[in-house]
Predict the structure.
Amino acid sequence: MDILAEQLDTKLRHWRPDIAKQVRQYVRELIDLADHEAIEAIDVMRSRSVEQEVLDMLDEPKTR
């Protein structure tokens, strides 16, 4: 098995269930896009992910 797949398998067993579920979904989507050679869609997906991270950070309550 590829080292990346082995690492992912190990990580999935150690992450919180909600994180593992989200990662599994992302991997499924990436595999589907790669199967269809949809490189442009993969780029868009990455951009949306980064955008969501920024929005989540903006929504976090500020601590002082």
Residues 34-58 form one domain. The chain is about 80% helix and 0% strand.
